[in-house]
């Protein structure tokens, strides 16, 4: 079976006019313009198989969103080639639009003043869906995503988590074979994030959809994707199964304890202490060597704990570790 | 074996496009009606404008100033003119702000990931919003006319005015679409908007009926899309005639074709720039 996505040496460089200083800078810029070139993607190549769930991760400005935009067809590359479901995205954008679903975490594709149901009805017309096929698919998705009670509400009255569930349903209404998700859990609370991850994974498994996801949240990657492509400074620095990455770089948790005492005397195997202000203790737990619940239990046993927070290490740290490992 | 005629695919595509445009129109209409407090406020504002400007122009007409069109007008005629011109002005949606926002903020991207033409869908939606405003303001204007006991135009004259006013409002939507599309190249569309608004004010007959202008300025005004936007419908209310109606209708349709083609060209150039350079 041919790959769902093939990318060969894809590059994107932006050229900006440079602004000159001084009162006549703008005028000089018009007569004798100077440009600055910024390389966003410096040559990436990979294949993604049909039905595969792949995360493209990297720090801010790494080039992951630029790569995703080129694969969706809303940005032309400076060089290189790509094929998505047999189409060249930036040349066959409209044809590709019928085959893919896209969710931008920070942008809504729904009509904010209208009830969700009306947005869905308009999308049926936009994608030329037969009424019965559409109704069948919509009803199934509405039930699966548990948004039946939201259909009559205007989009601008939904919580972010509710809206994101509706956005994902909207992206699936035309039965796409491939789903691009750009930061789908950004800004959501823990419960909403978990729900979204479950929906995406189950939907992909059920329908055999290929999923390409970008995220800053390591849990999105662990729980949804089976493969991770790490991009930094426009280049792929790592491409491997999530299981391997998890074992090497995601086996850590940060536990933040707020206490009455200025500091806590807690020494456990697999636990290191990070610098913090008084009354706050930040513990880094190697989950291969210590259990998070055991560490918290030990801390609570000391008494005087006012608050406990469990976090994943920020993506920047994971990338830093990956770099450090590659350098070794 | 029977083969499918080639035009059936084209017809199906046209039917799908028309259905999508109709759906966008309905969404625009529904959105405008859903924001009914805004519509109501707009109707009140329209009523205030008509009361003040109607009284002012009524006074001008009553003076029967020699050498001006006002001398030949029945009392209240200019009030009805203002009623039509303000109806058109207040019915036109702020499409330029929507375009500016979506083109500059990157909100355009989700729309580009759909198989239907963004600009056509947007125009259909704005036409829906415009229709809602036009209907509500039109009803408010007629109610005001009835309340003030003003002379009623004939049914045929009123029908002609409605046709020219609707087309005039759409000419306005297209003019402001061009303003909005400058956002592909300009950081802010405000300068282009201010210039357009001033030209509408002066050459479109919003300031005063262009029939009152000197002949050379009148000739310039009627040759612009600004008169097709405002003045033609207003003048049809002042002095209805089938010849004038046919001439105005032809000019409006021609301007809709020209402005639509210009918008399509600007969209194409701007989209190519966006796909090349990003937002």
Question: How would you characterize this protein structure?
Answer:
The complex is a heterodimer of chains A (328) and B (279). With 328 residues, chain A is an alpha/beta fold. Chain A has eleven helices and 13 strands. A six-stranded mixed β-sheet of chain A has the order 5-6-7-3-8-9, sandwiched between helices. In chain A, a hairpin with a 5-residue loop joins strand 11 and strand 12 (280-286). The model of chain A has no long low-confidence stretch (mean pLDDT 88). By secondary structure, chain B is an all-alpha fold. Chain B has one domain. In chain B, 78% of the residues lie in helices and 0% in strands. The chains are: A alpha/beta (328), B mainly alpha (279). Chain A binds chain B through residues 14-15, 66, 69, 72-76, 90, 93-95, 97-98, 100, 102, 104, 107-109, 111, 113-114, 118, 121-122, 124-128, 154, and chain B through 16, 19-20, 22-24, 27, 30-31, 34-35, 106-107, 109-110, 112-116, 121, 275-278.
Brief overview, please?
Chain A has helices at residues 25-31, 64-72, 93-97, 116-126, 131-145, 160-172, 190-207, 218-224, 242-249, 292-302, 315-327; strands at 5-17, 35-48, 53-57, 79-84, 100-104, 178-182, 210-215, 227-232, 235-241, 252-259, 271-274, 280-286, 305-311. With 328 residues, chain A is α/β, with parallel strands linked by helices.
